[in-house]
UniProtKB/TrEMBL annotation:
Compartments where located: Cell membrane
Organism: Rhodococcus daqingensis
Protein name (database record): MFS transporter
Pfam families cross-referenced by the UniProt entry: MFS_1 (PF07690)
Family matches, as PANTHER family: BLL2771 PROTEIN, INNER MEMBRANE TRANSPORT PROTEIN YNFM
Principal location listed in the UniProt entry: membrane
Source organism phylogeny: Bacteria, Bacillati, Actinomycetota, Actinomycetes, Mycobacteriales
Residue intervals passing through the bilayer: 21-40, 60-81, 88-107, 178-198, 229-250, 262-280, 292-310, 316-340, 352-374, 380-398
UniProt keywords, alphabetically: Cell membrane, Membrane, Transmembrane, Transmembrane helix, Transport
Parts forming coiled coils: none
Amino acid sequence: MTVTMTRAGRPAPHRRGSPGYTRITLALFAAGLTTFISMYSAQALLPALSDGFAVPPGTAALAVSVTTGVLALAVIPASVLSERFGRTRVMVCSAALSCAVGLVLPLSPTIEWLLVGRVVQGATLAGIPAVAMAYLAEEVHGADLGAAMGRYVAGTTIGGLVGRLIPSAVLDVSTWRWAMEASAVAALVFAVVMTRTMPASHFFRPRQVSPRTVTANLALHLRNPDLRVLFALGFLLMGGFVSAFNFLGFRLLAEPFGLPESAVGAVFLLYLAGTVTAAVAGRLSDRFGRGWVLLTAVCVSAAGLVTTLPDNLASVLVGMLLFTGGFFAAHSVASGWVGALATAHRAEASSLYLCAYYLGSSLAAVGAGVAYGWGGWTATVGYIGALLLVAIGLTLTLPRTKRRQAR
């Protein structure tokens, strides 16, 4: 691959429109696909897992929560490994191991064995999201980082969509085991695409790391008030998003909707809204500033959530469209902002954001299970709405604290 060079004869960061930029964004797009297919294909199977193993919805939902929870804890060690052994090497190894686990998960004889397997898959999968943002921040020119991050997040939205459509379609003609196997094969295909297209790192320099060094780097980022707000936003937004989609399927399968499995799976086509909004929000943040784009995205997500309350299918679909589009736009801006604020030790900064992000997916979703069991969809919306109100309040602090860094 031809590498753009500076006048001093050194590699130049990839700029939008260059061959290197195309390859790196394609590779990270595929990385987002394999990550989210592996992570969230079980979400479309929750009602089937509940029936197949004769467990309540809250227990079935652990098939998602345990994976994201363990991944949250593993992203920091994975980022440390990337500092020593390289960004691309860690991502490739992570993809290979997680796909191998995914291929054997459908053989699980009990829900306990399935949950153990999902724990292992979460640990092996952590290397991709832990490193991807730092890799982009190092290799892409700062002026084009927002757009590049938007493409990566767009890949996660497509991955989330494909990871739900495939098992939903297979469920109509077979069992949840074959549905999960089909998803694992799809994740493997995109892992191969990622591996074959990913450019080598030109700006990464391996460093010796120790627990003391890692702790100091993490503490450095946690002392930054803007980064702390972004970490909290990752927790709240992802927690609310996963909570909604975990229990949307149960609502649509029950009365008054009574939709078949394939129709419920098709609802995940709403992820396409996130594919568009993530990329658009990344470009808008480069042009107009991150702060106001982030605030607008969170408010749109909250408005969409309220729209889902009536027992009317059109209202539910429109509301989830807004909710999904707003979430992915907000995530695109917030994750890109972390990379922009953390000019040193970016891997640790990205891992802190992702640790909070996936802890939200795990811990907040457990609370949503309690809410759904107590008061159905209305209580779940109230729970998620409370998370979004806190997120709006936090977002309002960002333009006020460092308005210049919103540019």
